[in-house]
């Protein structure tokens, strides 16, 4: 009687591997998906772990009480007022940049030499905060060209104080933040099909009506995203507040409070608390902006482009 050959074990293991791959593929997990694992590990290492460790530190104040750092922050005006100071800088700058970027972007999309004008408008973003602040100190300082020119013309009798003050930080954020806001706004403006605006003109709508009823509804979702990103950028105002502001009084923003707690007082638990409150206040503003966006538009996150 002939002996029956048993199936090779390699074949069984191969069939099992095929079955496992089939089950993983059915759940959306394949070789391409596994390439995301290094990025996820980097995200956990650089963001998730520091956040959780900072949250843990914030509940371990020097006095031993669980919520001692939070009570100190909200009970001491030296810390609490930094939230208002930062908001008073970031919100107006973000809104003004958005109001300036929108009409300029609408105009630029109809120009022939767009690249030259766009290059000029986004040039400040290549300089960085330090170079912009140094230029402002030389130009807007007490002995700078701006005050000296006005005094030479007899328009003022004493130098104008535009740096080492709230005004200096506001101008610095405006100069460095506008290119970023403009590029985001331009991407949404150029993404709208011109045929839609032409259809409105064919139906007899003037420029203002075409903007209100055609362009603005399509732009609102994108403008909300632009506002959120520009606000987060402006909220981290530490370099400008130190270089061209008054970091001990009028421009003592929340990031300065976190820096002082960490590297002057060596109280890392309090610094973590300030950083978490800083993130929470940013998240609150971003959440309100996205909530208002949700009332006006429901669709893709980037809006409906054309």
From TrEMBL:
InterPro entries: MetI-like, MetI-like_sf. The chain crosses the membrane at residues 31-52, 83-104, 116-133, 170-189, 218-245, 266-290. GO terms for cellular component: plasma membrane. Gene3D superfamilies: MetI-like. It is a multi-pass membrane protein. It is found in: Cell membrane. PROSITE patterns: ABC_TM1. Residues 83-287 form the ABC transmembrane type-1 domain. It comes from the Bacteria. One of its GO terms (biological process) is transmembrane transport. Belongs to the binding-protein-dependent transport system permease family. CysTW subfamily. This is ABC transporter permease.
């Amino acid at each position: 009687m002939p002996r029956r050959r048993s199936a090779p074990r390699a074949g069984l293991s191969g069939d099992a591997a095929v079955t496992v791959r089939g089950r993983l593929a059915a759940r959306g997990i394949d070789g391409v998906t596994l390439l995301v694992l290094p990025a996820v590990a980097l995200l956990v290492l650089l963001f998730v772990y520091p956040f959780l460790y900072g949250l843990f530190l914030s509940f371990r104040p020097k006095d031993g009480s669980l919520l001692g750092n939070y009570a100190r922050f909200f009970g001491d005006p030296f810390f609490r007022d930094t939230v208002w100071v930062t908001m008073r800088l970031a919100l107006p700058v973000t809104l003004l940049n958005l109001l300036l970027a929108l009409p300029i972007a609408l105009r630029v999309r109809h120009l022939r030499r767009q690249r030259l004008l766009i290059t000029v408008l986004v040039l400040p973003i290549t300089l960085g905060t330090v170079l912009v602040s140094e230029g402002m100190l030389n130009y807007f300082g007490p002995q700078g060209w701006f005050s000296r020119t006005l005094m030479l013309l007899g328009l003022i009798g004493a130098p104008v104080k535009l740096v080492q003050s709230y005004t200096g930080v506001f101008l610095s954020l405006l100069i460095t933040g506008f290119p970023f806001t403009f590029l985001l706004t331009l991407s949404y403006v150029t993404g709208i099909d011109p045929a839609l605006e032409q259809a409105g003109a064919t139906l007899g709508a003037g420029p203002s009506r075409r903007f209100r009823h055609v362009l603005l509804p399509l732009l609102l979702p994108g403008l909300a995203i632009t506002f959120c990103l520009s606000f987060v950028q402006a909220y981290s105002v530490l370099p400008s507040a130190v270089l061209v502001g008054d970091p001990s009084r009028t421009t003592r923003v929340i990031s300065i409070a976190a820096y002082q707690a960490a590297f002057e007082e060596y109280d890392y638990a309090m610094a973590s608390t300030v950083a978490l409150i800083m993130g929470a206040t940013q998240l609150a503003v971003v959440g309100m902006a996205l909530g208002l966006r949700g009332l006006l538009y429901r669709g893709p996150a980037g809006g409906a482009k054309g």
